[in-house]
Amino acid sequence: MKESDTIWIACDHGGYDLKLQVIEYLRNHPIPVHDAGCNSTEIVRYPYYAAQVAEAITRGDAHRGILICSTGVGMSIIANKYPGIRASLCTSTYMAKLTRAHNDSNVLCLGGKTTGVFEALDMLEAWLTTPYEEGRHAISLGLITEAEKALTKSGIWNPADPMKPSVQPEKQQTNKVGKP
User: In the annotation, is 102 catalytic?
Assistant: First the structure.
């Protein structure tokens, strides 16, 4: 097993107890795990911990990560700011399966205060074992990558919508000196 097969996990104070259960599950299956903190229920700021996991994936040190805060929302917001991160907040096993199959999710976000342990572990198992289907889903992921590159470069993504006819602005006629 390569070092990049290690799953990176991090949490804030609201996700600490669930993180311990997830780590135990991973070690019992035996899936290598790197714990990037936090290490107690003392109040911390989740963006610092989400950044560690997202950066590990962006660098290629990991292929997947798990982030847990009270609801999973904050972690998913900050993680998705990083290029190449497809963080998915899941609240059901069905969501965990589909986000892997359709979105090739590489970060699972969970709510430590909104999700029971057994439900979270069921979602985790589904997320770990469901393969990405590729095919028609690759088109959407390609668009996400295209948007990510454009937004990173200019801050603007202006996609061509295949559902709408292309509208070109009318050119004004100019006189000989170039004025309308």
Answer: yes
